[in-house]
Predict the 3D structure of the following.
Amino acid sequence: MATDTAPSLSEQYLLDKDGKSDVGSKPVDLSKEESAEEAPTAAIEVKTEEPAAAQESTGTTPAAAEESIETTPAASSESTEAAPASSEENNETAEEEKSGEGETSEEKPEIKLETAPADFRFPTTNQTRHCFTRYIEYHRCVAAKGEGAPECDKFAKYYRALCPGEWVERWNEQRENGTFPGPL
Amino acid sequence: MKFLEWLFLTISPCDAAEPWQLGSQDGATPMMQGIIDLHHDIFFFLILILVFVLRILVRALWHFHYQKNPIPQRIVHGTTIEILRTIFPSLIPMFIAIPSFALLYSMDEVVVDPAITIKAIGHQWYRTYEYSDYNSSDEQSLTFDSYMIPEDDLELGQSRLLEVDNRVIVPAKTHLRIIVTSADVLHSWAVPSLGVKCDAVPGRLNQISIWVQREGVFYGQCSEICGTNHAFTQAVSRKDYGSRVSNQLIPQTEEA
Ligand SMILES: [Cu+2]
């Protein structure tokens, strides 16, 4: 947005790094998301195939058994390749839902404890700018990719984890009124 | 008798202040253990110096006597002793400073990615806590106010000026990020057992990283003079939970 004119110091600090890093990181996220969408269906297919193949192998000739052995490893390897990518992305929501009725004493399997990571750009005690930058990153991401783009979700997660709710509300109002002080 | 009772018959809650307490509260984080260790290390040398200086002082006073030593020594210079007593005391603070700075900078260090972010927002005179890691929109977040229980409402066994209605619940042995800020005036979020004291400045987010080693209820009070009710500001207490976060946090975020 402010790339043609000489950016101010704060803009340089806030945007240039972020914009470039965003571009770098997004294709990776996209591929993850795609695989995440594909993976569940693939897994379901594998599951439906395997019992049928197993029945065939036990009931009928050895040739069918060989076939089933040939097919299932391939299918399962596909599923294992696809599964980790899907589990990374989908576990958050799935585990949150599951953990509603959690009663065991172990905390790790129930919910995924995850928050905004430590950022090397903000190594100090003062994290004000960290919060602000993440908020801007999210809205720049939404502006670039469109509302509800899945790759922007992580920025939303970060700024919500870092910024007080009051601040976010105020900034949202300011954005609506067009008086938001940051570069969007 | 009263004094002896104070000394020996206090039921100490360990993670809260106790009457006539001299030492620190029991540490529950590596940071607090570091602080206590440093204190003990320094105190060892402090006692040595104290004994040495007292000996010189008392001896000088003892011998400066008109009958025992009617003619005092006339020495006013001594190059060797002057060099020694200048160099040596200046070295001691340097040796104290080395572990002290190491500890100080390790406190600021954010080495690992935290697992949980908790926002502690100071108000006159209560605290608001936000758990927003699981939000999916700006509106919904697990937010609650933590008020101190007034003196009249305390139940037996609860600490005056410390107990709160809503405790902050955090997991043990997990890296936590506490974002401390204020909505009105300066406050300070402090929990002695955790070795934490962080100023809450309006318009600024201060981050502290803690790693609680054991389960317990840890008490603290506001450590910045913040108004009339400063003394009964907030008691931040922490209880470790196993599945409590998932029981309390998640259902509430879903409802909210
Ligand atoms: Cu206060």
Notes: The pocket of copper (II) ion is lined by residues B 122, 187, 222, 224, 226, 230, 233 (CB under 6 Å). Residues 9-59 of chain A form the longest helix (51 residues). Chain A is about 70% helix and 0% strand. The CA atoms of residues 111 and 129 of chain A lie 29 Å apart.
